[in-house]
User: Which sequence fits this backbone?
């Protein structure tokens, strides 16, 4: 029996599925989401609702940070990023509401505080591009070598890991959202929001 296309099976190679919804309002040459899709490293999706099993949606407006508690779900369902311009992200803040129609909803998680190393947002707090967001999520859920491989060939990719190594290692040890928040307070003096 054939799959409907919305159901994803765990990949035979053990790789965590990476899904990207490309909104298309950023510069095409700077769009790391498009490059991931072209390289076969991420799969494009048209809608967020109806994905089964529901992935972990990396949402900068979510209250709960990604933690070790999300490891099992992400290993099977993967991570989903909505690729859009940071300049228009506020206007897109309702994108997660699209995922609310069905019974199975994506788990909305924000990434813990990290520093961008991409050329467009270098040194800015929490303004990661799509490849940095996927790499951080992989690293934090126990896939550090996959995160490093994903960043290869992207400007600032190797530097992203170097700049954030202490933070990434600390967050990766956190088993719960509360432990991540505690690490953020220790590393930055206060958590977001």
Assistant:
């Amino acid at each position: 029996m054939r799959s409907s296309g919305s159901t994803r099976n765990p990949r035979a190679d053990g790789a965590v599925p990476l899904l990207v919804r490309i909104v298309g309002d950023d510069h095409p040459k700077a769009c790391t989401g498009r490059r991931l899709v072209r390289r076969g490293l991420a799969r494009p999706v048209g809608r967020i609702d109806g994905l089964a099993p529901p992935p972990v949606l990396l949402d900068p407006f979510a209250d709960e940070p990604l933690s070790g508690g999300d490891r099992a779900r992400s290993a099977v369902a993967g991570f989903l990023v909505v690729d859009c311009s940071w300049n228009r992200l506020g206007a897109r803040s309702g994108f997660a509401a699209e995922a609310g129609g069905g019974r199975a909803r994506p788990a909305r998680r924000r990434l813990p505080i990290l520093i961008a190393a991409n050329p467009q947002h270098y040194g800015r707090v929490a303004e990661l591009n799509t490849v940095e967001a996927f790499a951080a999520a992989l690293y934090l859920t126990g896939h550090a070598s996959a995160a490093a491989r994903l960043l290869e060939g992207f400007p600032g990719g190797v530097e992203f890991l170097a700049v954030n190594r202490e933070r990434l290692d600390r967050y990766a040890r956190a088993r719960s959202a509360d432990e991540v928040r505690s690490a953020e307070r220790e590393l930055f003096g206060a958590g977001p929001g």
Summary: Helices lie at 32-38, 71-77, 130-140, 144-151, 157-173, 177-188. The longest helix spans residues 157-173. Residues 1-12 have pLDDT under 50 and may be disordered.
